[in-house]
Design the sequence.
C-alpha cells in the first residue's frame, strides 16, 4: 500500500541546482519547509517527539501506509533532542546478526535519502575505523568482522600499517600507553548532516499532509481499560494525549522521545528498561582537512571525525550517572582531550570551541525497545542510547508498519519490550562487555 | 584606511625601546614589546588580515581584541591564533589562513559574484543528483573549510594542571571585578581574580580620561598590596556543577596553556560587556571598526586607526572614541548620533577599504568620504557563566541588552553584566558583591568542614546565608540598534548576512536554534559573542516579534576556546608491573598489555615453554591475579552467597574452585578461594576482574548483608604470585621450601599451606593449576618476589626449570579446556552454558543469580564446548563463525584456538547452539579466508589428560 | 564536577565515586516470579526529579551509601549541599 497524502495541496517546489539558480536570479524566496498548522482535536495517529525517529515514523506512515492524518508533537523545536546534538555517525558493523541486518537496512536507506527526500543530507561514506588497543578488543573486532561479512556488510580487520594509510594522523607506533593493534575497518560507514535528515523527513512528511507541532508538550496519555489508575497500564488501550495546548483523541500513540522515553511511558503505565544519561560532545575550531575517516576507540572512550567545515567533532561515553541535565562537564572535555592526544598527538594546539550534551535512553543490552506494548495502541520506539541516529530510517519504516498494521515486522522482533520479561536480551551486550 | 604609529601615548603598553622582528606571510615586519600581532601589523600599515569563509572577502580589524573574528592567523604550528589578543614575540612566523594563493589575490573571491546563489543552506538544496558525484562535490565543499593548518608533528608539550580551592573567584578584572576581589579579600576570603586581558583594568586600560587612569593606578596599587591572587591573560572558561570552574591560563611561563580547576565557594561574574557590531550594507569592509578598537589602537599601542573618520555613536564609548581620534589627528568628517535618530546605511569603496559612508544625520541623507567608520551601536552582555549555572537571562528593551534573571545564589554578577553606573557606582557595586561573596563563601566553608567526618572540627554555628542587600545598578537607556535600513553581515566568521537570516526564518527556520543550525550563524570561532544578539534581532524582525519573545540561545562552555593540550594535561595512566619484572626484562621477555598491567607473554618460543612445563618444570609470574583477603566468622556465608557452589564446609587448609554469576545469571568471574585459618580466607579472582569483584563483594556486604562480620582487604599487589608447574615442580619446591611437607599426601591437590620459601616468611601456596600439571601457586610478600623467583631459577637449573609466559599458559589451559571469563564467555553467557551445571547448587537458600540459573534449566542456551578441526594443521581464528553447512546461518563461534605443541594438532573452545553440543557433533567452521572446514565437538572440555592425573600427581 | 555527599568523607568530586544506580529492593530469590525478578534486573523508574540512588565512595572510604538526588537539577536532598540553589536543566 503506497499512500498519496498530497490531497489538495499544491506541490511545493523541488530543490535543485536549477531551482537555486532560478530563485537566485529572480531574487525569489523559498516556501516554508513545513507548514504552521492549527492543532486539531483528533488524529489517526499521534507521534510524540519531533526528533529524527518521530519524523521518520510519520514520513513512513504517510508514504508506505497512506496514513496522513498524523501529528508529530514536540515540546520544543524539531530536532531539539538528541537528533540535533549527535555526532551523526552512520554504520552497520554491529555484532549480532539481528543488529547487522537492521542497521544494514538503515545504511541502505541513507544511501537513497538525498534523492528520495529531495534534500542533500550530505551522507559522507568516508569509512569508519574502530581501533583495538588490546588483544581482547582485537578479538572482538574479528568477531564483528566475521558476523558482518555473513550479513553482507563490508567490514574487515586491518593492521597498523593499513590504518596509517587510511588515516595518517593516527599514531600507530608503539609509543602510546595503549598502542593501536588493529582496527575494524568499515568503508561504507561515515557521517551524515543530522539537521538535514531531520528537516528532510519533516518536509517530506509535511508534503504528504502530516502536521508538525512544535512547542507542544505532552503532559499525559489518556487510556482506558488498563489495570492501573485512570485506566492506564497493561490490558488497556490508548484514547488520546493531553498537551499544553489541549487534549487530542487518537487510537495510536507512538513514543519517540528518546531521553524522555520513561516519562512518556510512565504516563501510559508502562515501565521501561531505560535510564537516562547525558552524552556529551565537543567541537574544535576549524582547520584544513586532515582526518579522512571516522575514528573510534572503544578502549579510550572517544570517537572523532572532521566535518566538511574543518572542525573536529568528538564524542565519548555517556556520563556516569543518570541525569536529565544537559549542562555538560569539564571532566568530559579533559578526558576526551587526553584520549584524542593519545591517538593523534599532533592536534594538541587545536582548541575546543564548544561542548554540549544530549540525553540518551540507555538499555541494559545496548539495543532499542521497539514495537507494541501491553497498552493497545501505545507503541514505543525508544532505547536509542548513543546510537539511534543511524537507525532512524529503518526504525521509522518498521515502526510505521507495526503501527499501521498492528503486527511486529520481522526486522524488529528481537527488539520487543517483552524480551526483558523473558530474559532474552540482545547480544550487543556481548560486545560491550567483552571490553577487557 | 591607513593606520600608522603615532607619538607616545600616556596610556600605551608598548615598550618602544624593545623592537621585535617577525614575519607576516613571509615578509619581514617589526613591532614593539607589548604589541599584539594585530597592532604591530596595523602600525605597519597592514589593513587586511584574513579572507572570509564563503565569499573570501578581505577582512580587516573590527574589534582589535580577543573576539575579533577577522584576526585569526596561523603562528608557526599554532592555528587560529587571535592576532587581536596574542602578544607579539620576536621571530614569530605569522601567516594568514584562509586565502589562496595569497591574502591579496584570492581566487575564491570570485564566490562573491555568486553570492545570490550561495544563500545560507544552499548546499542542502543541491548536489543530490547524480548520487555518484556527491563524494566529489563533498571534496570541493571541504576546501572551503576555514581555519589554519595543523602540523601533525607538533609535540604534546608540557601541560600541567593546577587545582585550587579559593573562597571566591572573580571572573573579569575591570573596575567592578577588581573592587569585588579587594572587598572579598578584606573580608577574609581567599580570592582568585582572573583577567582575560594581559593586564587588569578592563575598559579603564584604554581610556585616556585622567580620572579613569587615576582610578586604575589606585586599584592596581590596592591589588598589589592585597592577598588577592591575580591571573592575567587567563579566562574562566566554564562554570560547572557546584561551582567547579575551568580556568585557562595562557601566559604560564612553561606550559603552552595551563588548565586550572578551581572549586570556588562563590563565583563573581564580572566579564564586562562586549561591543556589538551594527548590521548594514558594507559593514564588513575593512575600515569599519568598533569604538573599542579605535581606542585600544590609539591608547594602548599608539596606532592611529585612519585619516578621516565618520563616527556613528549611540553611547558614551562612541563619544570617547571621537575625542581619542581627534587627539591623534584623525579628521572627524562627521559624528552621526544614534541617540537622536541618526543612522548609517552603508559604506562604499573597494572590497579592500572603506572610501565613503552613506549616513542619515542632521543634514539628511548624505555621502561622506572617509577611510574609517567607527560604529558604537551597543553591547552584548556575555552572560555565559550565568547560563552555565542554569540562569536564563532576560532582555531589557530600554537598555537594549540581556540581564541576569535568577542565577544560583553562589554565583553573583557585577559590573556591566549587572547594570550601568559611573566609575564610583561600579566600584561600589563591585565591592558590595565582593563582601557578599566572601560572606557566603564563609558559610559554605563552614558547612563543608562540618559535613566531613574526618575534617578538623569547626567552631561555632554555621553562619547564616548572607542576604543580597546590594543596591542594584541602574540601567542606562540605549536605543535598540541592530540593523540599519540595509542588510549586512551578522556573522563575519561564517559570512552570514541578515538577509540570509530573514530568508531562513521565512523558510520556517524561525526559532533561534533552528536558524542558527540552518545558517550556521554564531557557530564560528567567535562563538556568537559578537553575533548572537544580532541573529536574534534578525529573526525577531522576520517574525514580527520582539527580541524578548524570540529569546536567546544557551551559551555553552567554554567561554573562550582552549587547547586540547591544556585540557589533556599530563597523561596519568600508570603502568603496573610485578616486582619480578626486572628479571623478565633481562631475559628476552615479550610483554603483553593486560589492562594496566604489562605481563610476560613469552620469552621467545612459547611452544618450547609449553613442552618444558609438560616435561620438566616452568615458572610463570601471575602477580596480577586478583587476591582478596577475607576475615571474619561470616566468610563462609559470604562465599556461599557470591559463588554458585557450596562453601559452608570448606576445611582449614582446603581450596575450592568457584564460579560467580551476576544477578542476571551471567558469568561474572571465577577463581579459587582457600581457607588459610579458622576465620581467614584468601579469594582469587581473574586479573581483569579484580577491581570489579572487590566492589561487588563490598556491595553485597554493605547493602544486602550489613549484619555479617567480614573484613575485605584487596591484597593483589601485596603479594607477588608465581606458579611453579610441571612434573618436577615438587622436587623444585622442596629445594626452596623449608617448613612445609610437600608430599602428595601431606599437601594434596586443592589444598593450601603457609610456608617459608627461600627464606621468605609468610608465604602461602596452593596446589592448583590452570596448566593441568602438578603445580604450586606461590604467593610471597611482594617485595620478595624477585628474590624468590631467582632462588627458584637457581635451585632448578639442573631440573631444566625455565620461565613461561601468558601465551604458554593460554595454550596449556586450552589443552585442558579451561574457559576464560570474557573470552570463552560473553556478556550474555549464563552459568550453565559453561558446562559446569553440577557446580551450580540450586538447593542453597540464596546466592547471586539463583533465580535466573534455576530458570535456565528450561531454556535453550548456547554451550561452551571443546572443538577439534578435522585437519589438525588448521587453526581457525578466534572469532571464526560456526555455520550451518554452506549457508550463512550462524550456529556458534570459535572463542579460543591454538596449535597444541603437546598434541601436535589444533585445538579450540567455542560456543555452539545446544543441539550441537554433544560430543562427536560435526561442525562447519568458516575461516576468515572464506574457506569452510570441518570440525568435531569432543566429549569433554579437556583436549589433554581429561582424567586430570598429572594435576593430582 | 558534581559534589556527592559521602556520609563519611563529606562532599567529594563525583569522579571519586562510582555510581550505583537507582536503589531498589531485591525480591526474595526463592519466591520471585520471573516478571518480578526481571523487573528488579531491568526495569527502572528513571524519573526526572527526586531519585533515591546508590553511590560507592571508590577512591575514598569505600562505603556504599544511598542518597536522594534530583536528576533534573542535580541537587542532593540529604544532606543538602552548601548554598547551591540551582536553576533548571540548561
Ligand atoms: C552527543 C550525542 C552524540 C550522538 N552520536 C550519535 C552518532 O554518532 N550516531 C548515532 O547513530 N547516534 C548518535 N547519538 C544518538 C542519537 O542522537 C539519538 O539516539 C537519536 O537522535 C534519537 O532520536 P529520537 O528522534 O528518538 O529522539 P530525540 O531526537 O531526542 O527526540 C526526542 C524529542 O522528544 C521531545 N519530547 C520529549 N518529551 C516530550 C513531551 N512530553 N512532549 C512532546 N515532545 C517531547 C523532545 O523535545 C525531543 O525533540 C548521539 C547522541 C548524543 C546526545
Ligand atoms: Zn567516603
Sequence:
Amino acid at each position: 500500500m503506497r499512500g498519496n497524502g498530497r490531497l489538495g495541496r499544491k506541490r511545493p517546489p523541488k530543490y535543485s541546482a536549477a531551482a537555486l539558480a532560478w530563485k537566485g536570479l529572480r531574487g525569489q524566496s523559498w516556501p516554508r519547509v513545513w507548514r504552521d498548522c492549527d492543532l486539531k482535536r483528533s488524529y489517526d495517529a499521534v507521534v510524540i517527539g519531533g526528533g529524527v525517529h518521530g519524523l521518520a515514523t510519520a514520513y513512513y506512515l504517510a508514504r508506505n501506509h497512506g496514513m496522513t492524518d498524523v501529528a508529530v508533537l514536540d515540546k520544543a523545536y524539531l530536532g531539539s533532542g538528541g537528533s540535533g546534538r549527535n555526532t551523526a555517525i552512520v554504520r552497520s558493523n554491529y555484532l549480532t546478526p539481528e543488529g547487522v541486518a537492521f542497521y544494514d537496512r538503515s545504511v541502505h536507506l541513507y544511501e537513497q535519502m538525498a534523492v528520495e527526500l529531495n534534500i542533500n543530507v550530505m551522507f559522507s561514506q568516508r569509512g569508519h575505523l574502530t581501533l583495538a588497543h588490546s588483544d581482547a578488543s582485537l578479538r572482538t573486532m574479528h568477531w564483528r568482522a566475521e558476523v558482518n561479512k555473513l550479513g553482507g556488510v563490508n567490514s574487515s580487520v586491518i593492521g597498523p600499517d593499513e590504518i596509517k594509510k587510511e588515516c595518517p594522523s593516527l599514531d600507530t607506533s608503539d609509543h602510546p600507553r595503549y598502542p593501536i593493534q588493529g582496527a575494524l575497518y568499515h568503508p561504507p560507514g561515515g557521517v551524515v548532516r543530522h539537521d538535514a535528515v531531520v528537516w528532510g523527513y519533516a518536509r517530506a512528511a509535511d508534503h504528504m499532509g502530516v502536521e508538525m507541532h512544535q512547542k507542544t508538550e505532552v503532559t499525559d496519555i489518556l487510556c482506558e481499560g488498563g489495570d492501573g489508575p485512570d485506566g492506564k497500564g497493561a490490558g488497556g488501550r490508548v484514547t488520546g494525549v493531553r498537551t499544553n495546548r489541549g487534549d487530542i483523541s487518537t487510537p495510536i500513540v507512538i513514543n519517540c522521545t528518546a531521553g524522555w522515553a520513561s516519562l512518556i511511558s510512565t504516563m501510559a503505565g508502562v515501565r521501561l528498561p531505560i535510564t537516562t544519561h547525558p552524552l556529551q560532545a565537543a567541537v574544535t575550531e576549524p582547520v584544513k582537512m586532515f582526518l579522512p575517516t571516522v575514528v573510534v576507540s572503544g578502549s579510550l572512550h572517544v570517537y572523532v571525525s572532521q566535518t566538511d567545515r574543518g572542525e573536529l567533532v568528538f564524542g565519548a561515553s555517556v556520563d556516569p550517572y543518570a541525569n536529565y541535565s544537559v549542562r555538560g562537564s569539564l571532566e568530559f572535555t579533559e578526558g576526551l582531550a587526553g584520549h584524542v592526544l593519545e591517538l593523534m598527538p599532533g592536534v594538541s594546539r587545536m582548541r575546543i570551541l564548544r561542548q554540549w550534551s544530549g540525553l540518551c535512553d540507555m538499555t541494559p543490552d545496548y539495543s532499542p525497545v521497539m514495537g507494541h506494548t501491553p497498552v493497545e495502541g501505545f507503541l514505543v520506539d525508544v532505547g536509542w542510547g548513543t546510537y539511534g541516529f543511524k537507525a532512524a530510517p529503518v526504525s521509522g519504516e518498521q515502526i510505521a508498519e507495526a503501527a499501521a498494521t498492528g503486527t511486529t515486522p520481522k526486522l524488529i522482533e528481537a527488539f520487543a519490550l517483552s524480551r526483558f520479561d523473558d530474559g532474552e536480551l540482545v547480544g550487543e551486550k556481548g560486545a560491550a562487555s567483552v571490553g577487557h | 584606511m591607513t593606520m600608522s604609529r603615532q607619538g607616545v601615548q600616556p596610556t600605551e603598553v608598548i615598550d618602544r625601546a624593545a623592537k621585535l622582528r617577525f614575519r607576516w606571510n613571509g615578509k619581514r615586519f617589526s613591532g614593539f614589546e607589548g604589541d599584539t600581532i594585530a597592532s604591530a601589523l596595523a602600525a605597519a600599515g597592514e589593513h587586511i588580515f584574513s579572507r572570509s569563509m564563503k565569499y573570501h572577502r578581505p577582512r580587516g580589524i573590527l574589534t582589535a581584541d580577543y573576539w575579533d573574528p577577522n584576526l585569526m592567523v596561523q603562528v608557526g604550528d599554532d592555528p587560529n591564533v587571535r592576532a587581536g589578543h596574542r602578544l607579539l614575540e620576536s621571530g614569530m612566523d605569522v601567516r594568514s589562513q584562509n586565502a589562496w594563493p595569497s591574502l591579496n589575490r584570492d581566487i575564491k573571491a570570485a564566490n562573491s559574484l555568486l553570492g545570490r546563489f550561495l544563500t545560507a543552506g544552499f548546499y542542502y538544496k543541491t548536489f543530490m543528483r547524480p548520487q555518484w558525484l556527491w563524494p566529489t562535490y563533498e571534496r570541493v565543499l571541504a576546501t572551503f573549510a576555514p581555519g589554519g593548518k595543523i602540523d601533525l608533528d607538533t609535540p604534546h608539550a608540557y601541560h600541567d594542571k593546577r587545582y585550587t580551592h579559593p573562597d571566591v573567584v572573580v571572573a573579569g578584572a575591570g573596575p567592578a571585578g577588581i573592587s569585588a576581589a579587594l572587598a572579598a579579600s578584606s573580608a577574609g576570603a581567599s580570592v582568585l581574580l582572573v583577567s582575560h586581558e594581559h593586564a587588569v583594568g578592563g575598559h579603564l586600560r584604554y581610556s585616556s580620561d585622567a580620572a579613569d587612569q587615576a582610578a586604575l593606578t589606585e586599584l592596581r596599587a590596592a591589588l598589589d598590596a592585597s592577598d588577592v591572587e591575580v591571573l592575567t591573560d587567563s579566562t574562566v572558561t566554564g562554570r560547572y556543577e557546584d561551582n567547579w570552574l575551568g580556568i585557562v591560563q595562557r601566559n604560564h611561563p612553561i606550559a603552552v596553556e595551563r588548565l586550572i580547576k578551581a572549586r570556588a565557594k562563590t563565583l563573581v561574574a564580572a566579564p564586562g560587556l562586549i561591543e556589538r557590531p551594527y548590521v548594514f550594507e558594507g559593514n564588513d569592509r575593512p575600515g569599519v571598526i568598533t569604538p573599542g578598537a579605535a581606542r585600544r589602537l590609539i591608547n594602548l599601542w599608539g596606532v592611529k586607526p585612519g585619516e578621516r573618520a565618520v563616527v556613528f555613536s549611540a553611547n558614551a564609548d562612541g563619544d570617547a572614541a571621537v575625542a581619542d581620534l581627534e587627539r591623534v589627528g584623525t579628521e572627524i568628517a562627521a559624528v552621526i548620533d544614534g541617540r537622536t535618530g541618526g543612522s548609517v546605511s552603508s559604506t562604499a569603496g573597494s572590497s579592500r577599504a572603506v572610501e565613503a559612508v552613506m549616513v542619515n544625520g542632521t543634514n539628511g541623507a548624505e555621502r561622506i568620504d572617509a577611510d574609517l567608520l567607527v560604529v558604537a551601536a551597543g553591547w552584548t552582555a556575555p552572560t555565559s557563566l550565568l547560563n552555565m549555572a542554569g540562569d536564563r537571562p532576560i532582555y531589557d528593551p530600554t537598555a537594549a541588552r540581556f540581564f541576569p534573571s535568577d542565577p544560583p545564589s553562589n554565583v553573583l554578577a557585577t559590573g556591566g553584566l549587572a547594570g550601568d553606573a559611573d566609575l564610583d557606582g561600579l566600584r561600589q557595586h563591585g565591592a558590595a558583591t565582593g563582601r557578599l561573596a566572601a560572606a557566603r563563601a564563609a558559610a559554605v566553608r563552614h558547612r563543608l568542614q562540618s559535613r566531613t567526618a574526618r575534617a578538623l572540627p569547626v567552631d561555632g554555628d554555621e553562619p547564616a546565608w548572607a542576604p543580597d542587600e546590594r543596591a542594584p545598578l541602574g540601567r542606562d537607556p540605549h536605543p535598540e540598534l541592530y540593523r540599519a535600513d540595509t542588510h549586512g553581515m551578522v556573522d563575519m566568521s561564517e559570512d552570514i548576512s541578515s538577509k540570509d537570516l530573514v530568508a531562513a526564518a521565512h523558510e520556517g527556520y524561525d526559532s533561534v536554534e533552528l536558524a542558527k543550525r540552518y545558517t550556521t550563524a554564531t557557530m564560528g570561532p567567535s562563538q556568537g559573542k559578537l553575533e548572537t544578539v544580532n541573529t536574534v534581532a534578525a529573526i525577531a524582525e522576520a517574525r514580527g516579534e520582539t527580541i524578548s519573545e524570540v529569546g536567546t540561545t544557551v551559551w555553552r562552555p567554554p567561554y573562550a576556546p582552549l587547547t586540547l593540550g591544556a585540557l589533556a594535561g599530563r597523561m596519568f595512566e600508570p603502568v603496573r608491573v610485578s616486582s619480578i619484572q626486572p628479571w623478565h626484562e633481562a631475559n628476552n621477555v615479550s610483554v603483553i598489555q593486560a589492562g594496566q598491567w604489562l605481563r610476560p607473554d613469552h620469552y621467545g618460543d612459547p611452544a618450547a615453554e609449553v613442552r618444558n612445563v609438560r616435561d620438566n618444570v616452568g615458572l610463570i609470574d601471575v602477580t596480577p591475579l586478583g587476591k582478596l583477603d577475607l576475615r571474619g566468622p561470616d566468610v563462609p556465608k559470604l562465599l556461599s552467597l557470591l559463588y554458585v557452589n557450596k562453601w559452608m564446609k570448606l576445611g582449614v587448609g582446603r581450596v575450592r574452585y568457584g564460579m560467580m554469576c551476576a544477578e542476571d545469571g551471567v558469568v561474572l568471574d571465577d577463581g579459587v578461594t582457600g581457607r588459610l585459618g579458622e576465620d581467614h580466607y584468601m579469594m582469587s579472582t581473574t586479573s581483569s576482574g579484580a577491581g570489579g569483584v572487590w566492589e561487588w563483594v563490598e556491595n553485597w556486604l554493605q547493602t544486602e548483608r550489613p549484619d555479617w562480620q567480614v573484613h575485605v582487604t584487596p591484597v593483589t599487589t601485596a603479594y607477588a604470585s608465581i606458579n611453579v608447574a610441571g612434573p618436577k615442580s615438587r622436587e623444585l619446591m622442596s629445594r626452596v621450601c623449608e617448613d612445609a611437607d610437600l608430599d602428595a599426601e601431606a599437601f594434596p591437590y586443592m589444598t593450601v599451606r603457609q610456608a617459608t620459601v627461600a627464606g621468605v616468611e609468610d608465604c602461602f601456596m596452593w596446589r592448583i593449576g590452570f596448566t593441568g600439571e602438578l603445580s604450586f601457586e606461590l604467593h610471597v610478600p611482594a617485595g620478595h618476589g624477585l628474590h624468590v623467583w631467582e632462588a627458584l631459577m637457581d635451585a632448578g637449573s639442573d631440573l631444566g626449570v625455565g620461565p613461561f609466559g601468558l601465551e604458554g599458559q593460554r595454550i596449556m589451559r586450552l589443552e585442558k579446556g579451561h574457559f576464560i571469563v570474557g573470552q570463552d564467555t560473553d556478556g550474555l553467557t549464563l552459568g550453565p552454558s559453561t558446562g559446569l551445571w553440577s557446580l551450580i547448587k540450586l538447593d542453597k537458600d540464596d546466592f547471586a543469580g539463583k533465580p535466573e540459573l534455576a530458570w535456565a534449566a528450561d531454556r535453550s542456551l548456547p554451550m561452551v564446548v571443546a572443538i577439534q578441526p578435522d585437519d589438525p594443521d588448521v587453526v581457525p581464528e578466534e572469532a571464526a563463525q560456526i555455520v550451518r553447512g554452506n549457508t550463512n546461518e550462524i550456529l556458534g563461534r570459535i572463542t579460543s584456538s591454538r596449535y597444541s605443541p603437546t598434541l601436535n594438532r589444533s585445538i579450540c573452545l567455542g560456543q555452539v547452539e545446544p543441539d550441537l553440543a554433544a560430543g562427536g557433533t560435526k561442525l562447519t567452521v568458516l575461516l576468515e579466508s572464506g574457506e569452510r572446514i570441518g570440525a568435531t565437538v569432543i566429549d569433554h572440555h579437556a583436549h589433554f589428560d581429561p582424567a586430570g592425573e598429572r594435576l593430582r600427581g | 564536577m558534581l559534589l556527592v555527599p559521602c556520609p563519611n568523607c563529606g562532599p567529594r568530586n563525583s569522579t571519586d565515586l562510582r555510581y550505583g544506580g537507582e536503589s531498589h529492593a531485591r525480591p526474595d530469590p526463592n519466591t520471585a516470579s520471573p516478571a518480578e525478578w526481571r523487573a528488579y534486573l531491568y526495569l527502572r523508574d528513571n524519573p526526572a526529579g527526586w531519585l533515591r540512588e546508590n553511590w560507592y565512595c571508590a577512591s575514598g572510604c569505600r562505603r556504599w551509601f544511598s542518597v536522594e538526588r534530583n536528576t533534573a537539577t542535580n541537587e542532593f536532598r540529604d544532606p543538602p549541599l552548601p548554598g547551591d540553589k540551582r536553576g533548571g536543566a540548561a
